[in-house]
Design goal:
This protein is an alpha+beta fold. The chain is about 20% helix and about 20% strand. The chain has one domain. A hairpin with a 6-residue loop joins strand 3 and strand 4.
C-alpha cells in the first residue's frame, strides 16, 4: 500500500487567536461598542485580519470547548503564547483584550 504525500498549504497569517465557541455561544455577544457582538468578531476587526481564510493577515478561529467554562466570560488563547490563556469577561474593552493577549506588540 503506497503512502500519499503530505501536501503543504501556505497562509498569510502573522498571528492566530483561538476563541472558545461554547463560551461565546453562552454569552450571546457581550463585546464591541454596543455589547452585541461575539469576541471573535470584535478581535478580527481590531487586529486588522484583512482578507478571508488563509489569505487573511491574521486569524481568529472559534474552536470547540477549551474546558475552562467560566461564567460570564470567554476563553481566548494566542497561539504563539499557548501557556497564557485569557478569561475575558463580558463587556471587557477591546483595547484591554488586545493588550492582555499581547496582540498590540509588533510581530
Amino acid at each position: 500500500m503506497s503512502e500519499k504525500a503530505i501536501k503543504r498549504v501556505k497562509a498569510d497569517w502573522s498571528e492566530v487567536v483561538l476563541v472558545c465557541r461554547k463560551c461565546s455561544k453562552k454569552l450571546k455577544g457581550g463585546f464591541g461598542d454596543d455589547g452585541d457582538q461575539k469576541l471573535a468578531k470584535v478581535l478580527r476587526k481590531a487586529i486588522g485580519a484583512r482578507g478571508k481564510g488563509r489569505k487573511a493577515s491574521a486569524a481568529v478561529i472559534e474552536v470547540d470547548c477549551l474546558d475552562v467554562c467560566p461564567k460570564g466570560a470567554v476563553v481566548a488563547v494566542k497561539a504563539s503564547a499557548p501557556r497564557e490563556w485569557a478569561v475575558v469577561p463580558s463587556g471587557a474593552s477591546t483595547a484591554s483584550v488586545i493588550e492582555r493577549l499581547g496582540l498590540d506588540r509588533p510581530r
